[in-house]
Amino acid sequence: MSKIENKDENGSMDGAGEGTGGDPKDDKGLGLGVIFFLVAFLVCFLSGWLLFPKLLYSKREQPFNFDHVLHTQEAGDCETCHFLREDGTFSGMPNLESCMECHTDEPMGETEDEAIFASEYVAKEKEVPWFVYSKQPDCVFFSHAAHINAAGMDCKSCHGPIGESTTSKPYEENRITGYSRDIWGQNIWGIKKHSWDRMKMDDCAACHKEETGHQGYCFQCHK
Ligand code: HEC
Ligand code: HEC
Ligand code: HEC
Ligand code: HEC
Ligand code: HEC
Hints:
Elements: H1 2-12, H2 24-56, E1 57-60, H3 68-75, H4 96-99, H5 112-122, H6 144-150, H7 155-159, E2 171-174, H8 181-184, H9 201-212, H10 218-221
Antiparallel strand pairs: 1-2
The site of one heme C has 18 residues, from helix 6 and helix 7.
């Protein structure tokens, strides 16, 4: 049976496969080859989608943990620490001086985080080098006033639930571009579940188009 088939095959190939065709070992070889290919494909695929993002981003912890829930209660509201100045600029991260309205170099509580804060920063009068999750590249101009006042947006729609957290999440930096992961997205598949999952140029422009009918000119966001 197989002999006839081989004859046909070899015949049509002008005898090019002479001596190699028809060996039952070859079928097995092909089967193994397919399995090998599938396994290799799976390994590459999984490392690409699962491992690569892990390698691509380096995680760094904030200097010490900051509890937003506790502090919003103590301070009364978000604006005590993050506010728009008279001239419309945004205060951003609170400085050490504003923390020292309540904190001295003597910790009030027992936590290790407060002890680090008191001894390493308050006592030494050193500003805390916070990582900014939403940090855009220098070429991008962003105005909080336009979004908070003019557009009436809340913090969460861009930053997510940071203000409702009791722990500071690690800062993840893209090793190639230096971008924060909050800009290029938590989800490697590009799926966006929340408005704050990503803050790339297209995401800014998409909302501008929706809200103002125009995605904006380059010079609005690039100076
Ligand atoms: C309105 C007063 C107030 C201000 C302003 C304030 N804190 Fe606190 N902070 C507190 C109180 C009260 C506690 C609770 C102390 C305790 O554990 O009993 C606390 C606790 C802490 C802790 C330890 C909390 C924990 O759970 O680990 C850290 C760290 C800390 N503050 C850092 C800061 C920093 C940094 C700033 C400035 C950006 C700041 N605080 C501004 C009142 C304040
Ligand atoms: C006592 C001062 C204080 C108060 C009150 C406070 N924050 Fe903060 N906020 C901080 C400090 C310090 C950081 C930096 C540490 C961190 O990221 O956890 C921070 C970081 C943030 C960030 C991260 C920005 C970025 O891109 O890295 C957001 C968003 C934020 N705060 C929102 C809020 C909101 C919303 C509220 C009110 C519910 C609030 N904060 C109340 C002190 C404060
Ligand atoms: C339209 C989206 C948007 C909204 C709404 C918004 N932010 Fe931001 N925020 C950003 C972007 C983008 C940056 C980074 C700006 C940059 O790097 O130039 C940022 C940066 C910050 C920072 C870090 C500033 C620094 O020192 O570098 C803090 C703190 C912050 N925002 C808090 C808030 C708070 C509190 C609110 C609500 C009152 C708020 N944001 C509302 C998009 C937004
Ligand atoms: C969820 C919606 C939304 C997102 C996301 C958003 N914006 Fe906006 N932005 C607005 C709206 C609405 C206005 C118009 C406010 C007004 O009426 O002046 C605006 C205004 C602006 C302005 C002022 C334009 C001008 O000509 O005065 C700048 C600059 C800007 N956005 C930059 C950005 C950047 C950069 C990002 C991304 C990091 C961003 N925005 C993300 C809604 C958004
Ligand atoms: C709505 C605001 C907005 C508008 C309008 C806009 N950009 Fe951007 N652009 C951004 C933001 C935010 C980033 C950084 C995040 C990213 O790379 O997606 C960026 C990044 C870029 C970069 C990459 C810079 C880098 O260092 O990675 C280039 C190039 C660029 N923009 C060109 C343009 C050009 C050309 C236009 C006009 C056709 C334009 N942009 C209009 C917000 C905007």
